Amino acid sequence: MIAIGSDHGGYELKEQLLQFLEENGYETEDCGTFSGESVDYPDIAEKVAKVVLAGDAERGILICGTGIGISIAANKINGIRAAHCTDPYSARMAREHNNANIIALGGRITGTELAIEILCAYLDAEFQGGRHQRRVDKITALETQN
Question: Where would a tag sit more exposed on the chain, N or C end, judged by fewer CB atoms within 10 A?
């Protein structure tokens, strides 16, 4: 299961990625928005994060105009490791090395074909563990320090 959500700036790309995912056999949960009308991206980030943290989705996808704001919002939620990705290599590394459970994309800066390449790189990758687990554990420890 893949949870996906966007604000108005990412709505069109979200719809295209939803279609791609469903055509390729992925189960999805659409966390909104459901139109191009203005919404606040922190609300969407929270919805997707809650689905991922509850275990109802293995991974999440967030989209806003640039991918930056929505990734910042998601990363404020304990247990979320959201990676803003602009290329397939970063998406693969986000999963393999950082165990990112959400990727963030920019609907106004990333074309559909590139977004699909980024998405596939992320979904095809698996966390490598080992020395990377130690680093992820240190990231998790930072959540409890403040």
Answer: C
pTM of the model: 0.96
Residues marked as catalytic: 64, 97
Quick: pLDDT tens for 112-131: 999 999 999 999 999 999 99
Residue 32 class from Cβ within 10 Å (0-12 exposed, 13-18 middle, 19+ buried)? middle
Residues pairing with 3 in the sheet: 29, 60
Secondary structure of the chain as H, E, C letters: CEEEEECHHHHHHHHHHHHHHHHCCCCEEECCCCCCCCCCHHHHHHHHHHHHHCCCCCEEEEEECCCHHHHHHHCCCCCCCEEECCCHHHHHHHHHCCCCCEEEEECCCCCHHHHHHHHHHHHHCCCCCCHHHHHHHHHHHHHCCC
